[in-house]
Amino acid sequence: MRMLDKLLQGVEVRSLVGDGTVAVGRLEFDSRKVVPGTLFFATRGTQADGHAYIPAAVAAGAAAVVCEELPAERPAGVTFVQVPDSTVALGQVASAFYGHPSRRLKLVGVTGTNGKTTTATLLYRMFRRLGYKAGLISTVVYCVDEREIPSTHTTPDSIRLNAMMAEMVEAGCDYCFMEVSSHSLVQHRTAGLTFVGGIFSNITHDHLDYHKTFAEYIRAKKLFFDGLPAGAFALTNADDRNGMVMVQNTKATVKTYALQSFADFRCRIVETLLDGMLLNLDGSEVWVKFLGRFNAYNLTSVYATALLLDARRDEVLRILSDLTSVDGRFEPIHSKEGVTAIVDYAHTPDALQNVIGTINEIRKKDQRLYVVVGCGGNRDATKRPEMAKIAVDGSDMAVLTSDNPRLEEPGAIIEQMKSGLEPGARYLAITDRREAIKAAVALARPGDIILVAGKGHETYQDVGGVKHHFDDREEVRAAFGTVL
User: Fold this and answer.
1) CB atoms near residue 468 (< 10 Å)
2) What number of CA atoms fall less than 13 Å from residue 68's CA on the CB side?
3) Can you tell me whether residue 85 is helix, strand or coil?
4) How far apart are CA 109 and CA 14, in angstroms?
5) CA dist 256 to 89, 177, 308, 354, 377, Å?
6) What are phi and psi of 203, to 5 degrees?
7) Which pTM does this prediction carry?
């Protein structure tokens, strides 16, 4: 149990009605989960306003309510706390409730459009190999040292975030590496957390269904760096045209990394083969088991972050050479007949362009490339024609199909994708994703390459708002029949 007045320290309180010393045993922003002794937060979401559920929370036994507007009816025995923003207060109180766990960890956040999962995961693996206990919060999985927890969101809500970090502290973790999504920043899910560093990967066309404009998307990402404290580091990609914009107003120490520009940490791709790349990192050559410029950026940010966290350079380079790709990120599957399928999470125009570009750099003239790609429903529709054009222009044959259609008609999504194509473009349109993968495999001959893009690590397909089991990797293996 925690005393309410202690939890509110550092929170901007406009008014408090009732007993400020009431005991709190639980935090909730979902009225359906309220039990006696709960502190309920009336937060405003995109679909509902928590203020409408205050009576339900009170009826379920809430000891106190945090809200932006005091309700007309305030039953005796319930404390009401009025604040400017309930979501900000939720983050601050959650941090206090769990003993400010982020202050007892070295917490590093990674934000940007592409590369967040790979960068955060490789940092987690790097520091575990350096001998530390560490935590990971990513799109693919949450980790409390060795224990894995299924991931539900790129960045979970404030209560779950702090609860997991408290578990990390209890488990003896020294570090935590987490993806910070633009949605979470606008929704203040990271409020109350203390970061020792932040990493910016890049920013490209995505999430305009939520942010509406690219300028708002940039502003959302920039919020993270604006909030970093003095003494932290802000590591930014100097090659991205918005890289320095991100850190304009930060109090943190700015550091840069790049493959082209002058930067504090420099990388150059020396050689690329089918099984990896030779990189030159600040004058030292290191062979890595990754392909593509996008991965060179990811690895450079991992290298730079490790050094900024005082790891030994020779140890960092040694471990970099042994790290392997993250699930569903440029993950190869080889058939016994000699066809290679690459499963990748690329679901933005820039990510798809990067992956196709990487494959085209390494494939031989007689190797054909087939690209299976779709676009998610109830998401940014403006990228659909662009995604189709990138797939068609960069391959010998594109197969346009479903991704997670959600509540949209799959065929209508594909029609929007096709609107970006010129007459005579080489493509197939197959709504059923399983059949689309089978078609690409049937067309491929020994030596050819199939890129299955968009879902990567995901093990479901959302159709009509219902999630059905679907794993691109399983479907590829089933279509191949025999794999190496």
Assistant:
1) 9
2) 15
3) coil
4) 31
5) 33, 19, 11, 21, 36
6) -140, 125
7) 0.85
Task: List residues bridging with 256 in a β-sheet.
Answer: 236
Nearest to 349, CA basis, from 292, 376, 388, 400: 388
Q: In 3D, which of 227, 129, 122, 233 has the Cα closest to residue 179?
A: 122
Burial (CB count <10 Å: 0-12, 13-18, 19+), residue 24: buried
- Rg over CA atoms, the chain: 24
Closest among 62, 24, 38 to 71, alpha carbons compared: 62
Strands (E), 96-243: 106-111, 134-137, 141-144, 147-150, 175-179, 197-200, 233-237
Q: Are 278 and 285 in contact (CB under 8 A)?
A: yes
Phi, psi (rounded to 5 degrees) for 79: -90, 135
- 3-class SS at 256? strand
Query: How far is CA 275 from each of CA 13, 92, 243, 288, 407, rounded to the nearest angstrom?
Result: 57, 46, 30, 9, 40
CB burial class (10 A; 0-12, 13-18, 19+) of residue 107? buried
Q: What is the C-alpha to C-alpha distance for residues 6 and 48, in angstroms, rounded to an integer?
A: 29
In eight-state DSSP terms, residue 480 is H
Q: In angstroms, rounded to a whole number, what is the distance separating the alpha carbons of residues 134 and 126?
A: 10
Secondary-structure breakdown of the chain: helix, strand, coil percentages, each rounded to the nearest 5: 35, 25, 40
Per-residue model confidence as pLDDT tens for the chain (484 residues) = 899 999 999 999 999 999 999 999 999 999 999 999 999 999 998 788 999 999 999 999 999 999 999 999 999 999 999 999 999 999 999 999 999 999 999 999 999 988 999 999 999 999 999 999 999 999 889 999 999 998 888 788 999 999 999 999 999 999 999 999 888 888 899 999 999 999 999 987 554 454 457 678 788 889 999 999 999 999 999 999 999 999 999 999 999 999 999 999 999 999 988 789 999 999 999 999 999 999 999 999 999 999 999 999 999 999 999 999 888 989 989 999 999 999 999 999 989 999 999 999 889 899 999 999 999 999 889 999 999 999 999 999 999 999 999 999 999 999 999 999 999 999 999 999 999 999 999 999 999 999 999 999 999 999 999 999 999 999 999 999 977 6
Query: What pairing do the DSSP bridges indicate for beta strands 23-24 and 2-3?
Result: antiparallel
Is the CB of residue 417 less than 8 Å from the CB of residue 400?
yes
Of 199, 168, 157, 180, the C-alpha closest to 100 is 168
Q: How far is Cα 101 from Cα 162, in angstroms, rounded to an integer?
A: 7
